[in-house]
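Cont'd.
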Amino acid sequence: MNDDLSHRHSAFRFYGSWLEFARIAFPNLLLTIVTLGIYRFWATTREREYLWSKTEFIDERLEWTGKGIELFVGFVMAFLLIGLPLIVIQLISQGLIFRGEAILAGVITLMMFLLLFYLTGVAYFRALRYRLSRTYWRGIRGGSDDPGLQYGLAYMWKSVVGWLPIFLGVPWSMISLWNDRWNAMSFGPHRFSATAEWKPLMKRYLLFYLVPFLLFMGAVVFGISMAASGGTSDALGSTGIAIGAIFAIIAVLSLYIFLPLAALAYYSKYFRLAVGGLRLHNLEFDFRARAPDWILFFLANMAIVICTLGIGYIFMPYRNWKFFIDHMEAYGEINIDDLTQSETVVAKHGEGLLDAFDVGAI
Amino acid sequence: MSAFFDAWHYDGKNAVRRKVEVQIIGRQFFLLETEQRHGPFAFSDVEYVTRKDDADVYGLKAADGWRLMLSGPVPSDLSAMLPARRNYGGWVDRLGFGKAAVAFTLASAAAVAIVLLSPQWLAPLIPDSVDEKLGDALVGDFGGRFCSTPAGDAALKKLVASLDANPDDLQVEVAKIDMVNAVALPGGKVILFDGLVKQARSPDEVAGVLAHEIGHVREKHVMQALLRQMGLAVVLGGIDGNSGALVNNMLSMSYSRESEAEADAHSMKALGGANISPIGTASFFDRLSKMDGSANSGTSDNDIAGYMSSHPLSRSRKDAFEKSIVKGKNYKPALTPAEWTELKTMCTQDRNAKSGFGFDFN
């Protein structure tokens, strides 16, 4: 058995190989193209079947039992229930603007926006529920009896409250919503408990939040010191302008470099705290990836996609899952006699809403 | 007849892994543990679930989490009773990968061809009443922006009557909007923006543009474009986000170029029939081409900019209208100087018409 150091204590192990994955991903790509994208639901399913089956938890592989048709039906439902009405509403509101009923058009557009906002929240919730209900370990699955309609409301108000104090409440809303989502989920007979705290996240968030200000302050200080040290003659003045120009370029570049780095550092901490606050009966979870791991991971992803002129994009599900499993940890114990089947309902359709809004799960 | 074969089993009720022997009795089987016998189960209820490492995993209909995992060489009498492995998904597995890819390609090409070509045949089949209702729903009274004076209306009516044999099914209006533009809408509605009328140097210019828009109405371009857009939205709905929109835009763009050329041809014919000189329209496009820069590019339709835009380049349109001039023909002005002044000042005279566009509440 593969028992190297980094894996020695982890309950999660990933045995996949990218060559095997390529044999799934390339035919998937071809079939997706020739079906004008319709095959992608089956493609996703095949990829998950592979990734799950190559993932071991303690002593047994995971199983993905979702079906392509479920994702397809979910997508069609989202299209009929949301996509078409949206097109109609857009036409109506355009007609209203033509007629000068701008206020009514504005109200309709606002309602449409609120509805989409709400459904995005519901979509996040249902995607997680769908994934848990299709994931089996030793013949036992997860799920939730909550349809996520309440969560949609929580998503709306918590997001807004997070934005109101000039976006300083975002860490609170992210952690709080993560807890809400996971507290509604279960695996087998046990309910997840999510008690992550948001306060430890604030320092990282402020780092990210303040990067533009710090860069600006740095530029001002640098500029003043340059001006103070510079003479008054014309010759020196023009070098001063040249230095100023170079510095402006450096400032813009560093904004593009430091801001994503700070964002990754924040997200790394967020994910560590969020997973760290998760419990399932006597099991505790941990996510070990730290900011440098995330940064290397993203740089490698970018390099792969760029060097392969975009084709490498089809390996991203593999890379994401491997990164996730490689850094997941679980502690505690499971009594397999007590781990009985989940009694949650199993929805027949997949991540339609999620698919329609193009948001990721977990 | 009975045979025995070693396998792993989860009963789906709890997470205990059981080493069992499969005992086949006709079309049914039992799973034998050291002190327990599970079953009988019908082979017809067995479903293929997934491939897990070196084992094929089977489930049982209506028994959540029930699993039978077979590894190594499976005796032929057992494998004959089990369902086939699933690889790509039902259809692809039945046809084989190559054949399925070809079949999907053909089906997709057929679907796109139908969506692109059928609007030309379908649009004339849609009853005028539907067309009219759609136009009314979209435009209404245009927020009170239509201008009207007795003399101006009479001039406009004369212009329309000279350009079209059935002016009664057309509803041509001048709207108090300061933009150099004109639109054709469903239900035979044509709207000339006041900005276009004001900047025109002769009634012949307005006649050319008006005849172009009437061309869109007579060729049913608006309904065609609507049908094509709806069809493409459905067919390309499977492709996610940006790439779908890109393909959609490219396809509809090429069709709109075709429509513009048809409308131009209609316009030249109508001008010829009304004995109005196309030179005015040519000079209108000449002025436009100076605005869009195509006058200096020196190339015609092969130009990338011309290819990508929905309207043919103004310069090539100017050339086309110039070519349609018949030498020696005795052209008459589209309107008398008095009528032309009335049309041009109609929106200034009509104080009841609202001005502007969109969110403006005068």
